[in-house]
Design goal:
Layout lengths: L6 E6 L8 H20 L3 H19 L4 E6 L3 E4 L2 E4 L3 E7 L6 E6 L6 E5 L5 H10 L3 E2 L6 H8 L3
Parallel strand pairs: 5-8
Antiparallel strand pairs: 1-2, 2-3, 3-4, 5-6, 6-7
Length: 155
């Protein structure tokens, strides 16, 4: 590989879900019922927390996903403007099976050490070879079960 070779791609921040009015009505009913029950039992803080959480959840559900820029270069993996140097990446995995290929990296971060990002089908093998050429170990990883639960709930 050339010393200045790099791979670049863009992908949506998250897969956009189509949420109908029923979804928002269900959210509103759950939040209102939960907060009313909290106020009845004098748990005002929890009631307020439910209301704030419901409003934020509704706002995030309306928000359109941003287009994220990814780059693999000589220094590391760049996500938007943040660089993950190869020395801080413990391992990686390119999941090709399924409808959308994903790149997983295990970093040294304490909070959420495994980061997943969508990749283009044509780039999956190139990314794997690029990471291996940088002496990053390959380790099979998969999506956390909580992501699958959130996906089935429409998040």
């Amino acid at each position: 590989m050339d010393s200045d070779e790099k791979l670049e791609w863009t992908a949506l921040e998250y897969e956009e879900k189509e949420r109908g009015n029923d979804w928002f009505w269900a959210l509103g009913v759950i939040v209102v019922a939960g907060s009313i029950a909290s106020f009845i039992y004098s748990n005002y803080f929890f009631g307020l927390l439910l209301i704030i959480g419901g409003v934020l959840l509704g706002a995030f559900a309306i928000k359109k996903p941003d287009l994220v820029f990814y780059e693999l270069n000589e220094k590391g993996l760049k996500i938007r403007n943040r660089l993950f140097p190869y020395k801080n990446i413990k391992s990686f995995w390119v999941k090709i099976d399924g409808e959308k290929p994903l790149l997983f990296i295990k970093s040294e971060r304490l909070f959420m050490p495994i980061i997943s990002m969508p990749v283009e089908q044509d780039f999956a093998e190139k990314i794997k070879n690029f990471m291996l050429s940088k002496n990053v170990s390959e380790e099979e990883m998969k999506e956390h079960p909580s992501e699958k639960i959130m996906d089935s709930l429409g998040f």
